[in-house]
Specification:
heterodimer, A: four-stranded antiparallel sheet, globular, B: six-stranded mixed sheet
């Protein structure tokens, strides 16, 4: 158990809908990252938050947005869903500022199926 | 641009035999390299990392990795494979130009046969 939690585990929804994925980082971790894993694109970085502020953006669509709250949990919002958005979405967290602590710890993921 | 490559989609090995899962990297400056494992319907589990120091890095579950600067490689190894090691393995590099973002390889499926 990595200490990173994600809800829900599975999500099935229709095209055009909007969903929210939730992530709670490990205790003490200030950074949260979102990744998308799909068969054709592999593991792709979406976005990073650090202590409530957006820090880096990757291949994140404009239909997608995220935020990190004062208690450090994060939410990834996906709107106007398309069939191609079906994927496994991972959240990861890490400690920053400590030497040699560069690894990220991943949650179990949310499997999104768009029908 | 920083990248890693995993040249093998699948590696098959008999239980008890040594295993190697290959990874090569392309980075500017010193590489921060990682190995993760993904079991079916599970998240990625951190195995080990190379930041600096000894070229042979030891990690979880008996895995180790050898950093080779001249060959720009970071191969994952285990002296004696177990059937339970069967999983998807990812090599990753920290993107130093984009904070802590990890750039992953395409993954290698390890199949250990009894």
């Amino acid at each position: 158990d990595s200490g990173v939690t994600q809800t829900p585990k599975h999500l099935i929804t229709a095209t055009g809908q909007r969903v929210t994925l939730r992530c709670s980082p490990r205790s003490g971790d200030l950074s949260v990252y979102w990744y998308q894993q799909s068969l054709d694109q592999g593991l792709q970085f979406l976005i990073q938050y650090y202590n409530g502020e957006e820090r880096a953006k990757g291949n994140i669509l404009e239909r997608f947005s995220a935020q990190q709250f004062p208690d450090l949990h994060s939410e990834l919002n996906l709107s106007s869903l398309e069939l191609g958005d079906s994927a496994l979405y991972f959240c990861a967290s890490s400690v920053e500022g400590l030497a040699d602590s560069y690894e990220q710890y991943f949650g179990p993921g949310t499997r999104l199926t768009v029908t | 641009a920083q990248s890693v490559a995993q040249p093998e989609d699948q590696v098959n090995v008999a239980e008890g035999n040594p295993l190697t899962v290959k990874c090569t990297y392309s980075v500017s400056g010193n590489p921060y390299l990682f190995w993760y494992v993904q079991y079916p319907n599970r998240g990625l589990q951190f195995l080990l990392k190379y930041i600096t120091g000894d070229n042979l890095v030891k990690g979880s579950y008996g895995f180790e990795a050898e950093f080779n600067k001249s060959q720009t490689s970071f191969h994952l190894k285990k002296p004696s494979a177990l059937v339970s090691d069967s999983a998807l393995y990812f090599c990753a590099v920290r993107d130093i130009y984009n904070t802590d973002k990890l750039i992953f390889g395409t993954g290698t499926r390890l199949q250990v046969f009894p």
